Amino acid sequence: MLSLHIPTLSATLLKLSPSSNSRTKTQRRHAAHFTFQPDPVPTQYGPTQKMNLFQSVTSALDNTLASDPTAVIFGEDVAFGGVFRCTVGLRDKYGKDRVFNTPLCEQGIVGFGIGAAVAGATAIAEIQFADYIYPAFDQIVNEAAKYRYRSGNLFDCGNLTIRAPWGCVGHGSLYHSQSPEAFFAHCPGIKVVIPRSPVQAKGLLLACIADQNPCIFFEPKILYRAAVEQVPVEPYTIPLSQAEILQEGSDVTLVAWGTQIHVMREVANMAQEKLGVSCELIDLQTILPWDTETVCKSVVKTGRLLISHEAPITGGFAAEISSTVQEECFLNLEAPISRVCGYDTPFPHIFEPFYIPDKWKCFEAIKKMINY
Amino acid sequence: RNRTLDRCRQQPFDSTLEKPQFPGASADFVDQLDFIQPNVISGIPVYRVMDRQGNIINPSQDPQLSKETVLNFYQKMTLLNTMDRILYESQRQGRISFYMTNYGEEGTHIGSAAALDPNDIVFGQYREAGVLMYRGFPLDLFMAQCYANADDLGKGRQMPVHYGSKDLNFVTISSPLATQIPQAAGAAYALKRENMNRAVICYFGEGAASEGDAHAGFNFSATLECPLIFFCRNNGYAISTPTNEQYRGDGIAARGPGYGMLSIRVDGNDVFAVYNATKEARRRAVAENQPFLIEAMTYRIGHHSTSDDSSAYRSVDEVNYWDKQDHPISRLRHYMTTRGWWSEDDERSWRKQSRKTVMEAFERAEKRLKPNVELMFTDVYQEMTPGLNKQRESMWRHVQQYKEHYPLDLYDK
């Protein structure tokens, strides 16, 4: 029987390697491109507890299973707690008929979830990575989104919520880094929601679960452990389709969602310090249906708009925001609307530091807009 | 409810045994290299109760239903046939946009529908109108949906034959094939948790069974132990594609065991065989929380739809054989006439009466206005959204300005 406290051959080999003691620049894996900024502790939802983002998701799911006897959670590997630990402890607490593994089949997971929701259960489906949601695209777009409309409101799957880890993580490459919100933004009948933090995640997830329309909830995986806040223990909801103004400003409107909000916070600070530019930062939160009013009202005030997301620029959601804003606020614009996004390439592995819309690219874009 | 057989628990690890210890399969070792031969020459046998003429073969299999029940079977099958003829013709005349008939498959609908509980949920594909008719969906509502008029429960949003009824537990039909199969598994799981003695039946054709969603649905229902009947109408064609281009194995029934599912093949043109198999499958599905697969062999006598002319890919002789020599309606009629339950006069007056009621419903439906155009914008979400509201207002402004170009008079105000 292999003993765990005797060093293995491989560990010994690594120790003996000449480069092991002096770690050069090529060997250090790069630090994150942002610093997570926690929000002030919420006081209106009761007692709070320190939680990271995956724990805030667990808390939301725990609240749901406790209060709704029809609620079930399912997907690949959710039974033992999930590959990102979002469902840890729930199967033991609520039973194997309520928290269970499914076969490895995304079209099945979503199809099953739709059927359970149609039959009246609160169905919470997990897709292991947003990158793997595409086999379920037909079920989401052709079925879930259209169930109520096509049946004349006889049937619906409003009780369905789909959760999936989303966005870059430092080393995820093509298939563990994607942000597919733009594909779903084009689909009337579903809602698409992306939180920036643990407090937001729990409130928005609970809102999605309560919402009587099928919702897709993308969870920024890079924040699962890195984002820690004081999160209310009791259930609470944050309204969908209401963008949040995180800081007010007068010169430039910045719009982002998920991880990118924290990049933009730094960008706003840099713009203020280095350029004397006052930025209004908006977290869109709900991609579909999105809050056009808040964004347009802000651009009417500032005259400049920068939208930033990791997903590739062509056909990305910034294009939709840009198009609507120029229709509604054309005469208020002082400069062309700027989009700082991923390049039109698949998400690369080793080139991630060059690919992502980091704070320097956003800062440069603001400079150009101010000097237009 | 617990499964009586513990099918899925892994055996404890014991390397002292010569039996394989792999977690993935429970089997013996063999030292002979042999590929398992798929058996398509003499595949899974076809269960039937009546011969092609309608005589009972094994009296123990006669479900011995009451005269009233059997007459109802017959009347529903023939009423469906009459409605099909009239609506098919109405499409040819440009009165409705599209139609799909059920010719030859009436037995699969009525036999299975009769074996279910009214509270069982039905997920269909598109060629199961007889199930809905058996449950009591009125002719007016069939017509309303096909005409997309203001009485349509679906509010005029879908093509003809995309029926649905909440009251009759018939989930609204959608065009994409096989999408209902994993949904049926999810619904059955939810019903299992509800514990109210309800089952789900899921209909699909042998063509749809090729879709990935079918594989997903079968696998999920078996692993998650769902009270569900999969009912495959194997009617020989998926539009123009015959079964030998659809699959190379022994049909759909042979796939069941691959998923750990109890399976049977039945004569779909024998309404009693369909009834018996469905009844037993339903009983056990609910009692044992496991799915059943019924492959009902039948023949699609009509074209795929009004957009199809099947003479392009099959002979008239082939179609005539099934129409004249192996038809669910004539087989049941023989059973009835043998018992003195149905005479020539009954047949004549029933044909006349059913044609009359169908025509009357048809004429009513045709006169009705279409739904209010407001209904184009509702039910996208449960609530109206600001964005859709703006679009709605914009649409009305435009239509007001250009009203002579829009057929407003046909629509309800």
TrEMBL record, chain A:
Annotated GO MF terms: branched-chain 2-oxo acid dehydrogenase activity
One GO BP annotation of this record: response to nutrient
Keyword 4Fe-4S listed: no
The reaction(s) this protein catalyses: N(6)-[(R)-lipoyl]-L-lysyl-[protein] + 3-methyl-2-oxobutanoate + H(+) = N(6)-[(R)-S(8)-2-methylpropanoyldihydrolipoyl]-L-lysyl-[protein] + CO2
Compartments where located: Mitochondrion matrix
GO CC annotation terms, alphabetical: mitochondrial matrix
Required co-factors: thiamine diphosphate
Chief localisation class: mitochondrion
Subunit structure: Heterotetramer of 2 alpha/BCKDHA and 2 beta chains/BCKDHB that forms the branched-chain alpha-keto acid decarboxylase (E1) component of the BCKD complex. The branched-chain alpha-ketoacid dehydrogenase is a large complex composed of three major building blocks E1, E2 and E3. It is organized around E2, a 24-meric cubic core composed of DBT, to which are associated 6 to 12 copies of E1, and approximately 6 copies of the dehydrogenase E3, a DLD dimer.
Protein name per its UniProtKB record: 2-oxoisovalerate dehydrogenase subunit beta, mitochondrial
Gene: bckdhb
Automatic annotation (TrEMBL), chain B:
Oxidoreductase keyword on record: yes
Coiled coil regions, renumbered to chain: none
Tagged with keyword Metal-binding: yes
Gene3D superfamilies, per the entry: 3.40.50.970
Cofactor(s) required for function per UniProt: thiamine diphosphate
Subunit structure comment from the entry: Heterotetramer of 2 alpha/BCKDHA and 2 beta chains/BCKDHB that forms the branched-chain alpha-keto acid decarboxylase (E1) component of the BCKD complex. The branched-chain alpha-ketoacid dehydrogenase is a large complex composed of three major building blocks E1, E2 and E3. It is organized around E2, a 24-meric cubic core composed of DBT, to which are associated 6 to 12 copies of E1, and approximately 6 copies of the dehydrogenase E3, a DLD dimer. Interacts with PPM1K.
Role noted for this protein: The branched-chain alpha-keto dehydrogenase complex catalyzes the overall conversion of alpha-keto acids to acyl-CoA and CO(2). It contains multiple copies of three enzymatic components: branched-chain alpha-keto acid decarboxylase (E1), lipoamide acyltransferase (E2) and lipoamide dehydrogenase (E3).
Name under which the protein is recorded: 2-oxoisovalerate dehydrogenase subunit alpha
Organism, as annotated: Sander lucioperca (Pike-perch)
